[in-house]
Amino acid sequence: MAPTAAEQHTRKAVGLAARDASGHLSPLAITRSTGDDDVVIKILYCGICHSDLHSIKNDWKNAKYPMVPGHEITGEVNEVGKNVTKFKTGDRVGVGCMVNSCQSCESCNKGFENLCLGIIPTYNLVDLDGTITYGGYSSMVVVHERFVVRFPDTIPLEKGAPLLCAGITVYSPMKYHGLNIPGMHLGVLGLGGLGHVAVKFGKAFGMKVTVISSSPGKKQEALERLGADAFIVGKNDEEMKAAMSTMDGIINTVSANIPMAPLLGLLKPNGKMIMVGLPEKPMEIPPFALVATNKTLAGSLIGGMRDTQEMLDLAAKHNVTADIEVIGAEYVNTAMERLAKADVRYRFVIDIGNTLDKAAATTTE
Ligand code: NAP
Ligand code: ZN
Ligand code: ZN
Fold first, then answer.
1. Which of 65, 76, 90, 247 has the fewest CB atoms within 10 Å distance of its CB?
2. Radius of gyration (Cα) for the chain, nearest Å?
3. pLDDT averaged over the chain?
């Protein structure tokens, strides 16, 4: 029997979904609908961002279950819609935190789709057609071509996957807040997925980079492997005191609520702290910590599509990739437990292409 029109426009896939706030992930059969502007991507790798963990646990009180997380996606184009001009079958591509936006507002027109009020995040949002978006812990994704980036040949798909969220999230504020100037002193608060990429971009820009961490055990590799110039333990009063008023800017990637005043004290007068971390509870900021020496506290959400492509091309030029632990799909729940304890150097990446089908076939709920 010939397929119906609806069948022609849907593709079957499998994902790993959380069903409730326990966050436990297990296989789920899903469908993806395709359109004329869409790129159908066979997913090969997907990074595990801490936002995935916040989301499946409903930390931000906006979870829609079943939820298939994942927004650090790399893979290969399988098929393109008839209006697609930028990509063809077989291309190496990436997808980050959004799969669509209104494409016509001021933000979109300026290339800041990430700031569009009509942004469609890669997962956990009701899409225009009424379905919930499902992310990259899945075998396939269908994305409007504007939201697909070309993956540089020199970056391996697994080591590059985390750049699609972690990379752009730190690159964009460094660019727009002037924290990319050689010789400047950058603080990177929290050495996790985002933080370790921030260190690498800071060094690629020729900056002095200091890591501020809660994990003394990360010191040696921060200095030796990641190339940081200095390492401070946030709870070590002496180290913190010695670094007071020395930093031009801090990228704050910490996923938990921690006291802010001592950290703002690390900034020089007129210094800036950019929040990218998204702890669950409101932050307490003593006004004097900002006002006394003209400090700025700002926020930043991922980055636009043009900047994402620019970031990837720059990463290729400077050899910036993520330090990763590749895992099979069957390990994902253990990986989440480890991520909650900051026990990963520095990003888990799921080998979707080689392991998801098998995990889906053998796992029972
Ligand atoms: P991650 O890999 O878990 O890294 C977070 C780091 O924060 C940890 O490695 C740890 O570094 C530090 N940390 C965690 N708990 C802490 C605690 N109780 N006290 C002090 N430090 C603590 O997470 P990620 O994927 O980099 O994401 C970081 C945050 O950014 C998350 O909240 C995520 O949702 C958010 N995010 C935001 C955007 C955006 O667009 N703004 C995009 C992506 C992610 P140390 O061991 O060095 O202390
Ligand atoms: Zn993310
Ligand atoms: Zn828009």
1. 90
2. 20
3. 95
Task: Note down the domain range covering 239.
Answer: 166-299
Task: In whole angstroms, give the CA distance from residue 228 to residue 247.
Answer: 14
**Percent of the chain beyond pLDDT 70?**
97
Q: Write the DSSP symbol of residue 59.
A: T
Q: Please give all residues whose beta carbon lies within 6 A of any atom in ligand 1, as ranges.
A: 49-51, 54, 165-166, 169, 190-195, 213-215, 218, 253-256, 258, 276-278, 300-302, 339, 342
Is 316 inside any structural domain? no
Report how far apart, in Å, the C-alpha atoms of 200 and of each of 186, 197, 253, 292 are: 11, 5, 14, 31
- Residue-level length of the chain: 365
The answer to whether the CB of 163 falls within 8 A of the CB of 291 is no
Q: Which atom of ligand 1 is nearest to the CA of 53?
A: 34
CA–centroid distance, 68 to ligand 3, in Å, is 24
CA of 75 to the centre of ligand 2 (A): 17
Report the residue among 255, 338, 349 best suited for mutation to probe ligand 1: largest number of ligand atoms under 8 A from its CB: 255
Of 138, 192, 200, nearest in space to 329 by CA: 138
Residue 134 has pLDDT above 90, yes or no: yes
Residue 3 has pLDDT above 90, yes or no: no
What CATH number is given to the structural domain containing 247? Answer: 3.40.50.720
Rounded-to-integer distance, Cα 173 and Cα 143, Å: 25
Structure confidence at residue 127 (pLDDT): 79
